[in-house]
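User: Hi! I'm working on a homework problem where we have to compare a predicted structure to a textbook description. Could you give me the structure for the chain below?
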Amino acid sequence: MSGRVQLSQITALGTKEFRDRLRNRWVLAVALVFTLFSLAITYFGAAAQGQIGPRSIELTIASLVSLVIYLIPLIALLLGFDAIVGERERGSLDLLLALPITRLELLLGKYLGLAAALTLSTLAGFALVAVLLFQRFGSAGVYHYAGFVLSSVLLGLAFLSLALLLSVLARDRTRASGLAIALWFAMVLVFDLLLLGLLVASGGALGGDSFAYLLLLNPADVFRILNVFSLDDVRRLYGLASIVPPALGQPWLMGSAMLTWIVGPLALACWRFKP
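Assistant: Happy to help. Predicted structure tokens:
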């Protein structure tokens, strides 16, 4: 068997993984969840102020950002945590590796298929909101919303890479699932609280531009800055103008940080999965 990575093998494995997710209706279920929550937030988010429907594209995106930060990382982690360790527990991993494929091709094929399923479910789940925003704000609103959806996909891919890394490192599915939930809590709920506590405990001595760059250590914060900081009204609403330096709000920098979170854990998983 050749030691070279063959794209056809990766594509075939990815296609099988993607079809499995379509067959067990995983894509449909996730798309339905995204659709219901996103429509509810978009259409009824301003009901307390006596208004039905989106008031502005900025506030709509800000509301959906909170939804994405909680849901997409959790879904991505649950999707990929047993990709490798599950095969190992079922005894099918040795059978797969007995085929004329390499470990790298297997891992990349798994990731490709899961990433396609996650991307499709995300795009389908936010499609109806795009129609609603186009009817209300025209093409300009859809342009900003498209950037939000793209960044949501990238956030999911980043946490999917982390999930595959956990799946490679864990010894069994129980530990992998526990690590996935713990990682979700750490990244989504605990990380910002720790930074805030550190800032308060230091009396502001650790503040400044350098402290803000610690946000790059969390893909959820990268996603938040990428979406919220680029919208002036929402940036003032969230108070980010006084916390995040303008240099950190550059889309190319945040995009590069997100790509690093996608490639880095996946590359580490590939290295660790070697025989």
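For your comparison, note the following. Residues 7-272 form one domain. DSSP finds 13 helices and no strands in the chain. Good luck with the assignment!
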